[in-house]
């Protein structure tokens, strides 16, 4: 029996000619990414120099790895910032990350499309508020002179000392992150759930399975790849926990509790004038994030998931 010849692969030039219009459409976006994401990376060279703003980068003296001594020698301020960053990152992954998944599953279970749209609109709204507004809202609601404490004073009830309490700072910023971005995070999961074939739910129902079995055997496996993808990307930002949200509230709780790597770079570099040290910390932070993404993606391949890119 004669076997058919394998299909001939197009050459690189043939593929380029075939997709030339798509490549042309992508050119502006690629250009912007190169100009504003990759070209600025060349400035990381100041991590190895004693850079001063009144000198050019080329005129600044070369100091090698001297700026990295705060990391290698365990500078107390750096270690404190690293500790706080890891605590907040742990809370964001363990507490904040699963909430959009749960919200998406709950929204998907609503039978009324009108109610679903209303709930979605309410959940999406906080995402479009800046952190300045979000922090101000929490202060007006829970601050010492906020709405609740004023009401509690009028009714001889115990006061809440959440705002400004170092012991409750991590819980405060975690709740702020949930309130602001949990609703917006449901969009991707709802889109993944909408692609599930309805016949799969019907098959589980025919076999006597209720909503919990449909959730466990159909919905969750359908969005597993999306969960893995977003978790990998989240691990890449494990040392980036939100500069604006934290710097707005540092004055109330002090640096001992609120200093993270992002604010450490700002306070040492822009405020303190140690540009080289800040660049060194930022460079290491970026390298660690890249290593975590690649490592987590490799683990995802071992478990049969696609990850952020296909296995070569």
From TrEMBL:
Q: Which SUPFAM superfamilies match?
A: MetI-like
Pfam families, alphabetized = BPD_transp_1 (PF00528)
Q: What organism is listed for this UniProt entry?
A: Micromonospora endophytica
Q: Which GO terms describe its biological process?
A: transmembrane transport
- Do the record's keywords include Transmembrane? yes
PANTHER family for this protein:
BLL4140 PROTEIN
Report which superkingdom the organism of origin falls in: Bacteria
Major subcellular location class:
membrane
Membership in a protein family: Belongs to the binding-protein-dependent transport system permease family.
Q: What is this protein called?
A: Polysaccharide ABC transporter ATP-binding protein
Instruction: Provide the membrane topology annotation.
Output: Multi-pass membrane protein
Name its cellular compartments: Cell membrane
Key word Nucleotide-binding present in the record?
Answer: yes
Q: Which residues does the UniProt record annotate as the domain ABC transmembrane type-1?
A: 82-296
UniProt keyword terms in alphabetical order? ATP-binding, Cell membrane, Membrane, Nucleotide-binding, Transmembrane, Transmembrane helix, Transport
Q: Which GO terms describe its molecular function?
A: ATP binding
Q: Where are the transmembrane segments?
A: 21-39, 86-107, 128-148, 168-193, 275-296
Query: One GO cellular component from the entry?
Result: plasma membrane
């Amino acid at each position: 029996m004669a076997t058919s010849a394998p299909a001939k692969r197009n050459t690189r030039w043939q593929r380029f000619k075939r997709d030339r219009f798509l490549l042309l459409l992508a050119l502006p976006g690629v250009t912007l990414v190169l100009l504003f994401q990759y070209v600025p990376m060349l400035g990381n060279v100041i991590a190895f120099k004693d850079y001063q703003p009144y000198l050019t980068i080329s005129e600044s003296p070369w100091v090698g790895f001297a700026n990295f001594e705060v990391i290698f020698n365990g500078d107390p301020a750096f270690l404190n910032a690293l500790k706080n960053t890891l605590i907040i990152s742990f809370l964001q992954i363990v507490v904040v990350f699963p909430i959009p998944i749960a919200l998406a599953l709950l929204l998907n279970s609503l039978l009324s499309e009108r109610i679903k749209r209303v709930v979605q609109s309410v959940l999406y709204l906080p995402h479009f508020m800046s952190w300045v507004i979000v922090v101000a809202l929490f202060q007006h609601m829970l601050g010492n002179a906020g709405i609740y404490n004023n009401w509690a004073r009028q009714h001889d009830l115990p006061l809440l000392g959440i705002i400004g309490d170092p012991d409750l700072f991590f819980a405060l910023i975690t709740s702020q992150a949930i309130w602001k971005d949990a609703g917006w995070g449901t969009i991707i999961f709802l889109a993944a759930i909408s692609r599930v074939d309805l016949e799969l739910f019907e098959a589980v129902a025919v076999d006597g399975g209720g909503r919990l079995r449909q959730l466990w055997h159909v919905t969750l496996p359908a969005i597993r790849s999306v969960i893995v993808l977003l978790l990998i990307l989240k691990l890449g930002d494990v040392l980036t926990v939100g500069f604006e949200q934290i710097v707005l509230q540092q004055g109330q709780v002090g640096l001992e509790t609120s200093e993270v790597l992002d604010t450490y770079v700002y306070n040492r570099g822009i405020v303190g004038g140690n540009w080289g040290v800040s660049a060194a910390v930022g460079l290491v932070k970026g390298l660690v994030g890249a290593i975590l993404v690649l490592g987590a993606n490799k683990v995802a391949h071992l478990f049969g998931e696609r990850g952020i890119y296909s296995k070569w």
